[in-house]
Amino acid sequence: MQNVTLLGATGSIGQSTLDVLSRHPDEYRVFALTAHRQLDALMAQAKVYQPRYVVIADESDYAKAKSLMSETGVNAELLAGPQALEFVSGHDEVHTVMAAIVGAAGLMPTMAAVKAGKRVLLANKESLVMSGKLFMDEVSRSGATLLPIDSEHNAIFQCLPADYRYGQPQASGIAKILLTGSGGPFLNTPKQTLASVTPDQACAHPNWSMGRKISVDSATMMNKGLEFIEACWLFGVAPAQIQVVIHPQSVIHSMVQYLDGSVLAQMGHPDMRTPIAHALAYPHRIDAGVAPLDFSQLLDFSFRLPDFEQYPNLKLAIDACAAGQYATTALNAANEIAVDAFLQGQLGFTQIAVINATVLEKIEPSELESLEAIIEYDGLARMLARQAIDKLRS
Ligand code: NAD
Ligand code: MG
User: Do 104 and 80 have their domain in common?
Assistant: First the structure.
């Protein structure tokens, strides 16, 4: 029986994780559930899964959460605040932590799980984008087992040889990692008309059902950009060893190209329960509740390369990856502010990339050698992004 902490339980990944866990009650027990604002949803989950701890991110919601808890009849210990998130991540009795908080807020609790040497199921790509080297150094120091949940990285992981050595793709005969992406809802939308798209249009992904922030990132392909950075750190490869390929059907989730001409791909329905089940059970396989692929129905498999004029955010991210940690941290922070402003109706869709580019131009490069320095720099980039948005709107 493995105890599992779910950071971001009420989100899209959190719900899919609970769905997989509920199929294997003899293998996994929910130890802690955490969430930010959706207290009703959190208590409803707690009622079903009966965790030892229920944790809310915001201390000022404690009283409200406490009374909801007794109304719902939930019998767990209620904790609140950033330290409480870290506590349930690093707790001695926890075996596995699903890191599925969205955005930079996921960094510290995910790091707490890494530092405590847990089996870390990483959905929160932002933590790796912000702290790549520190994060990976901590993984090797603590002996944590890091398993990718992002479907592309999970696919790449499955296509790598079992004896793959971090940072040495050539030693395994690997020529390239082919990072696939659907191109999002605006793949065939003329770029001149993108300025007027609405948040709901941007969030209507053709293949995947996800939270709103990552949905907007998929529409701008910033998501693929963050994944590009994530892949460099996870597998220890250089930017030149990764190629982004658009595959609109989202059946192939990524590929590894070998020197002998072989290309290995991982396929499946676009359903996050597959990578979640893979990482939970690795190196074994368990049922994820996902229907098998039906090859009599898979008629159309197509591929093309991304157009950086259609997706300027993708180019910004690839360039930031080459520039270094300061640039990826700044880009991630600026993008969170810009996407939020877009979702609030304060910024146009194509202005997201304008804000991101402005922040990258304005911010001074810096050596970020500690988590504190990263968090401070992240704050600075957010401030520059807010200023750039105010300027655009005035
Ligand atoms: P979501 O918005 O649906 O859920 C986010 C979760 O994080 C919620 O439980 C929310 O309560 C919690 N949260 C939000 N702000 C918080 C804060 N300040 N402090 C603590 N908790 C907070 O997001 P999602 O789509 O489930 O994505 C979660 C993560 O997984 C993201 O990093 C995303 O990039 C990554 N991811 C998601 C998918 C997907 O299919 N949804 C695929 C790959 C990777
Ligand atoms: Mg992904």
Answer: yes
Specify the pairing of strand 252-258 against strand 174-181.
antiparallel
Are both 110 and 184 inside the same structural domain?
A: no
Domain that holds residue 224: 156-269
**Tokens read off for 34:** 């955490």
Query: Closest Cα to atom 22, ligand 1: which residue?
Result: 36
Q: What is the pLDDT of residues 135-151, one digit of tens each?
A: 999 999 999 999 999 99
**Residue 11 placed within a domain:** yes
- Beta carbons of 18 and 8 less than 8 angstroms apart: no
> Is any atom of ligand 1 closer than 6 Å to the C-beta of 147?
no
Q: Is the CB of 385 under 6 A from ligand 1?
A: no
* Ligand 1 and 10: CB distance under 6 A: yes
Ligand 1, atom 41, lies closest to the CA of 210
- Predicted TM-score (pTM) of the model is 0.97
pLDDT tens profile 260-304: 999 999 999 999 999 999 999 999 999 999 999 999 987 789 999
Q: Which residues contact 371 (CB under 8 A, 6 or more apart)?
A: 107, 108, 111, 131, 134
Calpha distance 209→170 (Å, rounded): 36
281 is a domain residue: no
Query: Is any ligand 1 atom within 6 A of the Cβ of residue 216?
Result: no
Establish whether residue 9 lines the binding site of ligand 1, counting it when its CB lies within 6 angstroms of any ligand atom.
yes
Q: How far apart are CA 356 and CA 327, in angstroms?
A: 11
- Angle, vertex CA 388, rays to CA 386 and CA 392, nearest 5: 115
For the chain, the domain total comes to 3
Tell me the best of 7, 12, 43, 234 to mutate to test the pocket of ligand 1, counting ligand atoms within 8 Å of each CB and taking the most.
Answer: 12
Ligand 1: nearest atom to the Cα of 9: 9
Minimal CA–CA distance to 340: which of 228, 226, 239, 217? Answer: 217
